[in-house]
Amino acid sequence: MVDPATAPDCEFHGLSAGGGVLAQMAVDNGGWETDLTVDTGVLIESSSSRADLPGERTIDVRIQTDTGDSGHLYTYGNGSLSTSFGDVICEVNGSDIITYTVEEMGGSAEDFVISWAIEPNPLTTGASDAYRSDLWVHNIDQDTWEHATATHAESTATAEDMVWLGSAPGSDQFTGVAYELRLCSAYHSSTETDETFSAVSSSPTLAGVERIESPVPTRASGVGDDGMYAGPVEAMAAIAVAANDLLMAGPAVNEVCRGAFANDSDLTMVDPDDVDFTMHLEFLRRRPVAPSSNRARVRVFLQQDAVGVAAMDVRCYCANAPGPIAHPSASPDDYERYYVEATRAADDGVGSSGGAWVDLGDVRLARDTQGYCWFWLGFDADSIDYWRIRAWTVEPVQETAGDVPGGGGFG
Q1: For residues 338 and 407, is the Cβ–Cβ distance under 8 A?
Q2: Both ends of the chain: CA-CA distance in Å?
Q3: Is the CB of residue 73 less than 8 Å from the CB of residue 63?
Q4: Rounded CA gap, 388 and 368, in Å?
Q5: 373: which strand partners?
Q6: Sheet containing strand 79-84, strands side by side
Q7: CA-CA distances (angstroms) from residue 55 to 132, 152, 158, 187, 258?
Q8: Quick one: pLDDT band at residue 233, thresholds 50, 70, 90?
Q9: Helix, strand or coil for residue 146?
C-alpha cells in the first residue's frame, strides 16, 4: 500500500494507531505538516485555507463504529460528512445530498473506511448539478463495498473552520472510535482509496519469463576464436528479448473513459474507404501484442441518445500505422488495416448511468515493424443526437483453425 500521507494531493493526514487519541490525530503527516488543534473533543483549524476546495476533493476516514453511533466526521462551513445510527450523510451547502443506510453495519462495532469523493459532473445541465459525489463505505472486517452517488451544486463555503470528529468544539462529536483521517484536493476512485488508504489489498504476483542466453564458445573449447559465435547468439538473444517485451498479462486496451460526448469531438476524420463512418482519434492507441495472438476481442460500453430508439454502428480498427496519412518510423512500407463492427439500437438518454456493453467480436491484427498494433474507434451515427464510449477493452486472443475467422472488413 502507498503511504496515505505521501499522496501528492494530500492536504491533511492524521493517524492514531490505537484509535481515538485526538492528540495523535492532530499531528499532520501530510505535505503541509501543519498540525490541528484539539478543542473540546474535536480537531480544528480556524479559517482553513487548505480545506477551501470548491472543486475536486476526497475525504477519507477510518473508524470503528456500529448502528448505535452518530456524529460528524468532517465539517467545513455548511458542508459535512456524518453518521447517524447506521446512516452516512453527505451535506453540501446546508442540504443533505446523500443519506445512505449502510447494509453491512450492525449492532457490533466493526472497522469501516468511509470515502466521499467529489468531481465536476461531465453531464451537467447547469449550476444545480455542476458536481457529482461518490460515497464509498468499505466494511474492512467483512470486506464489502457499498456505494451511493448524487449530483449537486458547487460548494459555496470559503475560509471556514475545518473540523474533524464534530461540527464545532463540543458539538455533534462522533461517538465511535476514529483511527485515521485524510483530506485530499483531487477526486479519488474506490481503487485509489483502497490502494492508498484502506491497506487491505495485496500486491499481484506474476510468473515471469526467464531469459536464457546460450554460452559463447571460447578459445579453451578448441572451437574457433574467442567471440567467433557471439554475433548469432547475441542476435538470437535480442530477438528473444524483443518478443518477450511484447508479452502482456492483460488486455491491450482496458480503459474507463470520462468526459464529454464523442459527438462533440474535434479529433475526427472521415474514413476514406467508407464515408458513412467517422474515425475518432481521441481513441487512438498503440499497444504491444504478443506474437502468438492473431485476433483481438473488442468490447465497448456505449451510451447513445436519440429521439426514440435508433440504430448506431460502432467500428474498431486495427492497423500497422495510425491511419491512412501518418506513417511513423516503425510503419511497414505497405499499409494494412482491418476492422470489426457491431450495431446497437437503443435510446439511453444522457444521464450518468445509461448505456450497455457491446461485443464487436474479434478483429484481425496488423502489426508494425516493432510488433505493435494501432487501435481506434469509428462511428456511423447519423440518427443519434449524443453518444459516448464510457469504457472499452481490446483483448488479444489466439484463434485456431477450428475457430470462426474474425476480422470484419478490410481496407
Answers
A1: yes
A2: 47
A3: yes
A4: 29
A5: 287
A6: 37-39, 42-45, 162-164, 70-76, 79-84, 87-92, 95-101
A7: 10, 12, 12, 9, 17
A8: low
A9: strand
More confident residue, 289 or 323: 289
Residues 64 and 111: their CA atoms lie apart, in Å, by 4
| Percent composition of the chain: helix, strand, coil (DSSP 3-state, to 5) | 10, 40, 50
Alpha helices in 132-221 (DSSP H): 190-193
| Assigned CATH topology for domain 253-397 | Jelly Rolls (2.60.120)
- CATH topology for the 4-198 domain: Jelly Rolls (2.60.120)
DSSP class per residue in 48-102: -STT--SSSEEEEEEEEE-TT-EEEEEEETTEEEEEETTEEEEEETTEEEEEEE-
Contact 139, 24 (CB under 8 A): no
SS3 229: coil
Q: What residue type is assigned to position 305 of the chain?
A: D
Beta-carbon count within 10 A of 54 CB: 13
User: Looking at residue 382, what DSSP letter applies?
Assistant: T
Closest CA to 108 of 88, 87, 86: 86
Task: Write out the H or E segment, with its range, that includes residue 336.
Answer: none
Tens digits of residue pLDDT in 90-146: 999 999 999 999 999 999 999 999 999 999 998 889 999 999 999 999 999 998 999
pLDDT on residue 329: 84
Same fold yes or no, 4-198 and 253-397:
yes
Q: What is the CB-side half-sphere exposure of residue 329 using CA atoms within 13 A? A: 0
Question: Vertex 42, ends 152 and 20: CA angle to 5°?
Answer: 105
Give the alpha-carbon dihedral of 144, 56, 161, 37, to 10 degrees.
60
Domain regions of the chain by residue span: 4-198, 253-397
Mean pLDDT, the chain, as a whole number? 86
User: Can you give the length of the chain in residues?
Assistant: 411
Secondary structure (DSSP) of 13-56:
EEE-TTS--HHHHTS--SSS----EEETTEEEETT-STT--SSS
Cell numbers describing residue 398:
489466439
**Type and span of the H or E element at 205:** none
